[in-house]
Model the fold of this input.
Amino acid sequence: EALRAGWRRVVERTFNQVTVDGDTSTNDLALLMANGAYGEVPLKAFFEGVEAVAQELARMIARDGEGATKLMVVRVVGAATEEEARRAARAIAGSALWKSALYGNDPNWGRILAALGNSGARFDPLRVRIVLQGIPLYEGAVLPFDREEAGQAMRAEEVEVLWERIRELTFSLSQLCQELAENITAEVVLLSSDLYQSGTPEE
Done:
């Protein structure tokens, strides 16, 4: 029973955080089997190791998408709930417009914001931050940034998109502690790839 519960948590944080084309495969299955011959094992260390392996396999699945040229890592921080964080991450990762921009190395922050608006996650556009490859693009309004530098940064094999809710620091310490407690799990990392291309991608 401990194996079943632990494996379910691992799958939820790894394989279930992968989206390539948005479709649900009829062929995918993740199994973890043990016969108990080894005897007792420290479960915490065991599942940490299992999750590390599963995370790497999940990255390989996303990176190996047909025609994909790069891995997209979407990180959502500070959403109202973990479910809303997942919605926001999936909306960004699944947006054909953003995938096209990603393939073309175009730091089009508007397509990320548009995908978020279509996600169903609650947020105020004036209180969010969008960071691409460590370069801040938007914080309540578009920020001045070097498009050529951002485009060059997007040529990497792995591109990270960060969407973060900006908290106002105008409340008491008790309110801050309550908000942090409510949002401690509202961080999601989702893996995807850029838009499929037929034929050989341009260099």
